[in-house]
Amino acid sequence: MVFTTSYSMINTEMTPKLSIITVVKNDKDGLSRTLASIRAQRYSNREHIVIDGNSTDGTKAVIQAQHAAISCSLSEPDDGLYDAMNKGIQRATGDWIQFLNAGDVYASEQSLEQVFLSLPKTAAFVYADTLLITERGTLVRYLPAPKLTRKTVTKGMIVCHQAMFIKRTRCPDYAVTYRYKADFNWVLDVINQLEPQEITYVPEAVVQYRLGGFSQSQYKKHLLEYMKIVRCRYGMWMLVYRLPRIARRFLGETIRQFLGVPTLRFWRKKRG
């Protein structure tokens, strides 16, 4: 099922057009939150593409009810999250691409303005800070993004994926052979094809990252696939070099889940 609409945006001027891609499956409430957050953005030169994995919970009804605010939507079975994200890339027509999946929201109404109104001409990839929040929407802490380089990126997803923006012409597809960490592999593809001057950091919280519910078994699968990607792409020595960090992350996540707390880093200042 495909819906397409064409509608006028205001205040486009000379700003880049952003394609916001939202992937959803059986999450009508999360999609509604995301749609409301996008509508509230003051940056108007954008399109919104919704890729639905053939939901059965009423998500399709939400898409139909909001079709005037959605540039393109597709509802059909897919081969998982990353296959759906690739479908979004294929349908994007903007200068830039961002992934904001169902349940994800922006940090403020000015978030996209903070990214695009002062964008350097050399930029091909932008990343920003994040607000970590609980499932109920309570602020946990401000997450400043570490510097992304070809070396630091081997640490894993050290920057929130929703806080990343890439030029459409430089956007690779996701490797669907990876079921858990294709996003990490995608970031490696991005960083390794770019020169330092093409990477721009915006020191502002652009999105809210809602703590989810990965079980311990899921976390192990994510960690094992991360290790596989590092070994395949950089060799065993890089994996050995990262083993202390991997051990700390696994121990920290185990303790966090055992205590039932949203974070162990309570000393971080709550900005934003």
Number of strands: 10
* N-C termini distance: 40 Å
What low-confidence regions span 5 or more consecutive residues with pLDDT below 50? 1-11, 267-272
Average the pLDDT over all residues and give the rounded result.
Answer: 88
Helix content: 25-40%
Question: What overall geometry do the principal axes of the alpha carbons give?
Answer: globular
Task: Supply the helix-strand structural class.
Answer: alpha/beta
Q: Beta-strand percentage?
A: 15-25%
Number of helices: 7
Radius of gyration: 18 Å
List the helices and strands in order: EEHEHEHEEHEEEHEHH
The major pleated sheet works out as: 10 strands, mixed
Characterise this structure.
- The chain contains 7 helices and 10 strands.
- The protein has 272 residues and is α/β, with parallel strands linked by helices.
- Strands 1, 2, 3, 4, 5, 6, 7, 8, 9 and 10 form a 10-stranded mixed beta sheet that branches.
- α1 runs parallel beside α2 and α6 (216-234) runs antiparallel to α7 (236-259).
